[in-house]
């Protein structure tokens, strides 16, 4: 295993998490804003306190939904995953 690729992976890693107890209507507002951003097809901006993340959702991505019960606690998680494509890549011949 190459150390160079390990270093590249470490440099590109970034993880932000938001977890608070808020009213159902506020949850709906957050989800609707996210859906609107995905539907528009442009850049989606999410603020995590004083940090901001911007990304352009692709046409296709992996979607995972998970529901768990632990005693009296319920948990519903959504996960979207995709790879960023290098749009500068050109394959072909020149004349």
Automatic annotation (TrEMBL):
Pfam families: Amphi-Trp. InterPro entries: Amphi-Trp_dom. Coiled coil: none annotated. Residues 1-14 have a biased composition (Acidic residues). Residues 13-88 form the Amphi-Trp domain. Residues 1-20 are annotated as: Disordered. Signal peptide: none annotated. NCBIfam families: amphi-Trp. This is Amphi-Trp domain-containing protein.
